[in-house]
Amino acid sequence: MPFHERPSRALYAGPERAAARSYLRNIGFTPDDLDRPVVGVVHSWTGTMPCNLNHRDLAVHAAAGVRSVGYTPMEVNTIAISDGITMGTPGMRASLVSRELVADSVELVARGHMFDGIVGIASCDKTVPAMAMAMARIDRPSVLLYGGTILTGRFRGREVAVHDVFEAIGAHAAGTFTDADLDEMEAAACPGAGACGGQYTANTMAMVMEVLGLSPARVNGIPAVDADKPEAVAAAAALVDTVATNDLRPSALLTRPAFENAVAAVAASGGSTNAVLHLIALAAEVGVPLTLDDIDRISRRTPLLCDLMPGGRYSAADLHAAGGTMLLVARLVEGGLVDGSTPTVTGRTLGEEAADAVESPRQRVVAPLAEPFAAEGGLVVLRGNLAPDGAVVKVTAHTPRSHTGTARVFDGERAALDAVLGGAVGPGDTVVIRHVGPRGGPGMPEMLQVTSAIMGRGLGETVALVTDGRFSGATRGLMVGHVAPEAAAGGPIGLLRTGDRIVLDADTRTIATDADLTTRTPPPAPGHEFTRGVFAKYAATVGSAAGGAVTTPSSNGAPA
């Protein structure tokens, strides 16, 4: 077998391992099976959401692909949290925490059961980066596959996605959307299995994995319910043999040029700000330095080339039909904006894969390099006396680029949402939501419920938002997140008061107030109720959003 290392031999080879083999002999594994390389087929099926609903079915095809090249698959299931379903509730605090838990659980089972390789199937926002983080830690032959995007729904003759429902909640509160309107859209927006259908976090990270080379080109973009998906997954899973033969482990793929390529793709596609957290966290797993300044620098030089939801018109399925991620990469290669020499799990370079992109005639999803939707990419990093370590905002062709407003300060999301829905926030205001960062949340919940309410009430052009929490990829408008340091870590956002003047400017990369914060004492922090369990452990070990919000134990028990 071409595997350079066979950890599974320590588990199953030799007379002294007879007891281990005896557990497996009568549940479907033969001695020959256990003599072959063992590949974990790891997925996050759960019946709590549509995102991962097809994973068990896809795992069957992935296992067949593994067997087709002479290896033995062993199926493993881990957990997932739905950002969209938990949004606006205390359950949303579990989302980012789940990234660490999924990564830890995949690493743990792979080390415990000594898998020789991994085929991972992931879909929702945190399982995709979590799977990649685990693969990076284990550094054995690995292939990462995406379960696929959901299709858009139809509402009164137009395409809709889940962000439309969130914004409709704001319209309903404003009295411009009836109960019947809301029910009709609710029933239509999510028509089946698959992850949220715009260039939100899941689809952004699926694109990232193709560009990094952990996923084979042209597979992730196939929608979840597409008839081509099972066969494509089987063929992609079989690539674990190519990876093993050519030693294309994560350590060979996750290089500095690959990460810069991925940042460029996110920026050019108008992708989710969550990619900033996840790329920095994944880079940390392999010792590649990647900072907010790097991300801003790359985004500045990269034009916005995709017209994708939520800021644009088209869905992830539309991008696939237009030519997919590799069409975008081909544009970036053409402009010298990515390094086409980076390797991928197919054994071919990223440039070679992009050269095979087939552009659909008359497609409008990906612009020509000479006619971008905006001169620079969608990821903008702001700094100033409110965020000395940085803050992140997604700016598309339709986003206001500056705002000067009066702070309306809230210690938590619920109070801010009530104020927006109740009409207490108006033009010229800057909503500030603090103590919702990685440590303060804990878990850095997304503020989509609030941002969507702002948009739904027709305030998207006149109201901005600043938070030490984060945003869904479905967020639109001038919404600034990841403010670092967070309030719970003593950040200056904790010193703001309602009535302070806040200046936001994407062009000058500014987030500042003219209030004299040096004379103020922070008010008592609201804290959280967790003294034990997963949230307490997370809050005790998580670091800054500027560093990817990774959990790193240190000798004194504080975040590193």
TrEMBL record:
One example GO MF annotation: magnesium ion binding
Calcium keyword on record: no
InterPro entries: DHAD_IlvD/Edd (IPR050165), Dihydro-acid_dehy_C (IPR042096), DihydroxyA_deHydtase (IPR004404), DiOHA_6PGluconate_deHydtase_CS (IPR020558), ILV_EDD_C (IPR056740), ILV_EDD_N (IPR000581), IlvD/EDD_N (IPR037237)
Reactions that this protein is recorded to catalyse: (2R,3R)-2,3-dihydroxy-3-methylpentanoate = (S)-3-methyl-2-oxopentanoate + H2O; (2R)-2,3-dihydroxy-3-methylbutanoate = 3-methyl-2-oxobutanoate + H2O
Keywords: 2Fe-2S, Amino-acid biosynthesis, Branched-chain amino acid biosynthesis, Iron, Iron-sulfur, Lyase, Magnesium, Metal-binding
Residues binding [2Fe-2S] cluster: C51
Cofactor descriptive note: Binds 1 [2Fe-2S] cluster per subunit. This cluster acts as a Lewis acid cofactor.
UniProt binding sites for Mg(2+): D83, D125, K126, E446
Transmembrane segment boundaries: none
Function: Functions in the biosynthesis of branched-chain amino acids. Catalyzes the dehydration of (2R,3R)-2,3-dihydroxy-3-methylpentanoate (2,3-dihydroxy-3-methylvalerate) into 2-oxo-3-methylpentanoate (2-oxo-3-methylvalerate) and of (2R)-2,3-dihydroxy-3-methylbutanoate (2,3-dihydroxyisovalerate) into 2-oxo-3-methylbutanoate (2-oxoisovalerate), the penultimate precursor to L-isoleucine and L-valine, respectively.
The name this protein goes by in its record: Dihydroxy-acid dehydratase
Source organism of the structure: Pseudonocardia dioxanivorans (strain ATCC 55486 / DSM 44775 / JCM 13855 / CB1190)
